[in-house]
Design a protein that fits this description.
286 residues; alpha/beta; Spore Coat Polysaccharide Biosynthesis Protein SpsA, Chain A; ten-stranded mixed beta sheet; 11 helices; 40% helix; globular; hexosyltransferase activity
């Protein structure tokens, strides 16, 4: 049987938690996937650990090492090497339900012949949540443009995208910047393609203290070109006046603190919104 899926995991110094994901992959009811790992310059025992996984010969594992450049660089490298029909990023601090791949293959059959649909989604919940399984896994719908959803419990969607579609949307790579929001690429995909959205709960995990999300705003400041580009991208969505105001404030704050050129600060997004923000800011301090 031809392998249909690449489960892609970018990792950095996560040898202490990778076994949890590996164990969940070993016990999948459907083994029709390859686990592709890009090690983003780890200095711990990651390489040796993965070699031990490979020696067990339980699942197909591909391992690549790169100098520390950031998750989005790793994803780009993974995409370039992917040959399967579908590509799904599962982070090193997550793990899958034992029927995850089986469900993913079933979903893939529903959309693989439809060129207008880029991929499908499923839910990642905190492993600490004791959710009612009877309430989830029943709903599917086709979404155009940005996906609107509201789960009963805190959670996020994981996207599984057709590889030939995702390979049209690589992350921008700015020298010296090690972070780029994933939503930047997902927005671009969603503007041109439809997505099959589901409420299937197939992944679990929690943000760790050494994870990206716990230092999110500092990451934005350290990668200003990517961060400002992502805000510009969000202005192409249908957003409320309040969200637009918050985005203008964030844009100006990042551009100012990172000493961006005058043109970038004032004309990167709508200059009238920037001017209005500065006037209101001045009035508040009078």
């Amino acid at each position: 049987m031809k392998t249909f899926l690449t489960i892609f995991t970018p990792t950095y110094n996560r040898a202490y938690i990778l076994p949890k994901l590996y164990e969940s992959l070993k016990t999948q009811t459907n083994k029709n996937f390859v686990w592709h790992i890009v090690d983003d310059g780890s200095s711990d025992e990651t390489k040796m650990l993965v070699q031990n996984f490979q020696n067990e010969d339980q699942i197909e594992i591909q391992y690549f090492f790169q100098e520390n450049m950031g998750k989005h660089f790793a994803v780009n490298q993974g995409l370039k090497k992917t040959e399967t029909e579908f590509f799904c990023v599962i982070d090193s601090d997550d793990y899958l339900a034992e029927n995850a791949v089986e469900e993913m293959e079933s979903l893939s059959h529903k959309i693989k012949k439809n060129d207008q649909i880029a991929g499908f989604t499923f839910i990642r919940f905190s492993e600490k949540i004791n959710y009612d399984k009877a309430k989830y896994g029943k709903n599917e719908w086709i979404s155009s443009r940005r996906i609107n959803y509201e789960w009963e419990f805190p959670g996020e969607m994981i996207f599984c995208i057709k590889t030939n579609v995702h390979q049209q949307f690589y992350f921008p790579e700015f020298e010296g910047e090690k972070f780029c929001p994933e939503s930047l690429i997902l927005r671009r995909i969603e503007r041109q393609f439809k997505i099959l959205v589901t409420d299937k709960v197939l992944a679990f995990g929690d943000y760790l203290e050494d994870g990206l999300m716990n230092n999110y705003y500092q990451l934005l400041l350290k990668s200003p070109k990517s961060s400002l580009l992502n805000i510009k991208e969000r202005f192409q969505d249908e957003i409320s006046p309040e969200e637009k105001s918050n985005l203008v404030k964030t844009y100006w704050d990042i551009a100012s603190k990172t000493k961006q050129p005058f043109f970038t600060k004032f004309f990167g997004i709508n200059p009238f919104l920037i001017l209005n923000f500065l006037i209101n800011k001045k009035l508040k301090h009078q």
